[in-house]
Amino acid sequence: MDLKSNHASPILTDPAPMSKSRLGLYSGLFPYSPPGAVFSSGMYLAVPRKKPIPGKLEDVRSSGWLDAMKSSSPPRKKMTKDFIVEVPSDDNGDLLYRSWMLKYPSALSSFEQITNQAKGKKIALFLDYDGTLSPIVDDPERALMSKTMRYAVRNVAKYFPTAIISGRSRDKVYEFVGLTELHYAGSHGMDIMGPVRNSEFIDDHQNCIRSTDKQGKEVNLFQPASEYLPMIDEVFKSLIEITKDIKGSKVENNKFCVSVHYRNVDEKHWSTIGQCVQDLLKDYPRLRVTHGRKVLEVRPDIKWDKGKAVEFLLDSLGLSERDDVLPIYVGDDRTDEDAFKVLRERNQGFGILVSSVPKESKAFYSLRDPSEVMEFLKSLARYGAS
Ligand SMILES: O=P(O)(O)OC[C@H]1O[C@H](O[C@H]2O[C@H](CO)[C@@H](O)[C@H](O)[C@H]2O)[C@H](O)[C@@H](O)[C@@H]1O
Questions:
Q1: Where a domain ends, among 300, 335, 352?
Q2: In this structure, what are the phi and psi dihedrals at residue 351, rounded to the nearest 5 degrees?
Q3: Gene3D superfamilies given for it (predicted)?
Q4: Of the candidates 149, 151, 142, which has an alpha carbon nearest to the alpha carbon of residue 172?
Q5: What digits encode the pLDDT tens for the residues 197-250?
């Protein structure tokens, strides 16, 4: 496969203009300007952020939110040996999936191709958590990683610098993963604990401070949205209050963002939950919403996402100005697309989309579910050891 070719991708990511300058990346964390296009032609729908017409309240049903909420995760679940996986809902699903894989080949069957590309290069590995290392389950508190997955991650990290980039709070994802040898970015990259490096830019940045990790080791702590903390706390409390009567809803505080889960809410109430969030955010123009898997994610409207986190971590690891580095990012949801996009734009490395249903993506390869992710990590570790 020609990794330089571009899929015509109608994927949604938040339409943030991407800076070409690497050093410029961390400056100017200003809110997005209002975007124009709102729809993509794939399974994803953009979060519409049109200017409200004065005197007319925007409604979740008419603004595209509800469609985005409905398309945010495949419907059915089945048990495999180790994982619950989401599967296509009809018999045509497998056929569609196999034709989709022509565009996004399996990273397992393309493994030799991947290692050919890695020859003479240093792999840097970035892993999303939910839906990638842990199965999607109804209760976010129970999205535990299996011991075998933990072992696979630990093993691969012996050979390649490895970071977890999650929408969860950094503390929470660390609690789930529990491996001290990794780097962690929580809150969609808005809370990064990375290695200390004397990079001019990192040292100068006001939101980047020296700190110590749980083992007392000196680290760089980068929190570009630190000023939003009180606002996020306030919004978290309000969201708990205004959704308390919606059965099955759950609000999760991810430190620099808040997740409003509707996986366990009856579909007929999804518009209510969407409307609650939309109405509340009218009072918070400095916040925005992104759509994850049956979750609305309220976050600071700054130019920072998982893609920027990848670039920051590459810089922290001393790998950003080198062309002998192959970054690989494995993730399953829409917020991971920002990272896939960055790797495409850098023309360096690639994304691997974890999905059991066809989706438009900026990734180059695919894996069906966390059990395939584990196989991939094991293969990578074997390659690292060889
Ligand atoms: O960036 P990630 O690590 O993928 O985190 C994204 C969100 O993941 C979690 O929610 C998702 O997984 C839950 C557990 O399987 C599931 O119940 C939920 O429906 C999914 O959306 C997490 O709870 C969120 O806070 C993260 O933002």
A1: 300
A2: -95, 150
A3: HAD superfamily/HAD-like
A4: 142
A5: 766 656 666 788 888 888 888 888 899 999 999 999 999 999 999 999 999 999
* Annotated catalytic residue 128: yes
Q: Whose CA is nearest to atom 15 of ligand 1?
A: 136
CA of 140 to the centre of ligand 1 (A): 6
Tallying the residues shown for the chain, one arrives at 386
The one catalytic residue among 128, 130, 301, 332: 128
Q: Which among 270, 300, 330 is the end of a domain?
A: 300
Q: How far is the CA of 48 from the centre of ligand 1 (A)?
A: 22
Q: Give the pLDDT mean for 261-273.
A: 95
Ligand 1 surroundings by CB, under 6 angstroms: 128-131, 136-138, 140, 143, 166-168, 252, 254, 259, 261, 263, 292-295, 297, 333, 335
Q: Which atom of ligand 1 is nearest to the CA of 333?
A: 4
The domain containing residue 291 runs over which residues?
228-300
Of 379, 348, 346, 352, nearest to 368 (Cα)? 352
**Residue type (1 letter), 199:** S
The CATH number assigned to the domain holding 374 equals: 3.40.50.1000
Ligand 1 center–CA 66 separation, angstroms = 19
Residues 284 and 245 in one domain: yes
Phi-psi region of 178 (alpha: psi -120 to 50; beta: other; left: phi over 0): left
For the question of an ipTM over 0.85, the answer is yes
Q: Which amino acid, residue 380?
A: L
